[in-house]
Task: structure prediction
Amino acid sequence: MTQGSLFDNTNDPSLADGGLLDGLQYQERFLPPDHANGLFEHLIHQLDWQQPSLTISGKRIPIPRLQSWQGDGRLSYQYSGETFVSQDWHPDVLSLKERVEQQTQTRFNAVLCNLYRNERDSVSWHADDEPELGPSPIIASVSLGATRSFQIKHKIDAGKTMKLNLKHNSLLIMPAGFQAKWLHQLPKISAKCGARVNLTFRYIN
Result:
């Protein structure tokens, strides 16, 4: 499979087996099915979900999703001009982190958990390139619940785009160097859909 074949706004079937886009990797059926189903329910009901507000054009606007920021100790993380301090690890999230570390052979010390409650929750175009992450972060993303469209576009050549439907119980790995070249988003959709929990593991310097 050539890199060019990925830029067609459709899922390539081989991506389920680890197809590459600058090292991007996608794996379905990451956890045993019963484990994934139970974890999804536990996280929705047990995490301390919050809805912070960001200042946009001088106005305080709640983000269109809920989040829980967890990590080793009291880690600070900044984006959109706001500073967030991590909570202690939830036992289920800590156990998941250890599985992700084994799979990726990468150490992580923090996670941003996002709860997309329905089709109206979203995250706009961005890159995970904050200074705390270092120059070439590796981001491991676990999806649970409803399938949502993960869209990618090149920072310079906006004509290079890709869409990947992130399914329940899947793992997406964005490798070192990926954030420097690519933006990603999870847009609102018109069709009704259920809740989705996404956990993006990273290392904070």
Notes: The domain at 3-202 is CATH 2.60.120.590 (Jelly Rolls). The first strand starts at residue 25 and ends at 27. The radius of gyration is 16 Å. The longest helix spans residues 33-46.
